[in-house]
Amino acid sequence: MMLLFGIKTDAVAASEPPVQALLEGWRYFIRVPWLRAVVASFTLLNALIALGTTTIGPWVIGEELSRSSWGFVRSFQAIGLLAGSLIAARVFWSRPLYRSMIMCVCQALPFLVIGYAPTAAPLLHLAFFAAGTSIAFQSLAWKNVMQADIPQHLLSRVFAIDMLGSLVAVPVGQVLAAPLMNHLGLETTELMCFLLAAAGLFLCVLEPSLRRR
């Protein structure tokens, strides 16, 4: 918070009720195809990550390696996030959002390693490092493109809808983890997560307006 002192901003009066403001943001959101495509793909992706990585992952890695191994594995995702942030901040890409959405398939790699090679620590570390790197690139590209393309008075409203859409399905993934594991088994569940995530991202990058960003 101390870093925010001294920053000058234009005071904006709250001239309309919050519900009306959100509705205006929603009307803009549904008119913009690339916004809808990205948020829809992350609604699915985040639910699958909650299912196959953050819920099933700790149990599987704890059983196959050790309880402490999961924390060590996730630290490689943090390292990838840091490395990706440093690189993304210094590299100029044409069509950064489109390219970063292609990179997001790396976030599905942990599904395959958890499902098929949970004892292969180097593969786990590599998969989570790649996932963290792709998160960094996508996050930076997403925020930059939104701030460049969305009218300023609608930006916070669209960001709110983005957060809601991205996180609303996470509890669904968490709830489905145990039933799917019991009925399909580990390998099939993780393969399903990978294929669904890849399909969602593939359909997203087919959107013509996204491919220009």
Q: What distance lies between the first and last C-alpha atoms, to the nearest angstrom?
A: 32 Å
The total of beta strands comes to 0
Strand content range: under 5%
Q: What is the radius of gyration? A: 19 Å
- Average pLDDT confidence is 87
Summarize the main sheet.
none
Helix count equals: 9
Helix content: over 70%
Enumerate the spans where pLDDT stays under 50 for 5 or more consecutive residues.
1-5, 9-13
State the shape: globular
Structural class: mainly alpha
Walk me through this protein's architecture.
By secondary structure, the chain is mainly α. The chain contains 9 helices and no strands. The longest helix is centred in the N-terminal third of the chain and has 32 residues, at 33-64.
Structure keywords:
disordered N terminus, 213 residues, mainly alpha
Describe the SSE topology:
Layout (H helix, E strand, L loop, with lengths): L17 H14 L1 H32 L4 H20 L7 H8 L5 H8 L4 H29 L2 H16 L2 H15 L1 H20 L8
Helix pairs in contact: 1-7, 2-7, 2-8, 2-9, 3-6, 4-6, 5-6, 5-9, 8-9
Short description:
This protein has 213 residues and is an all-alpha fold. It has helices at residues 18-31, 33-64, 69-88, 96-103, 109-116, 121-149, 152-167, 170-184, 186-205. It has 9 helices and no strands.
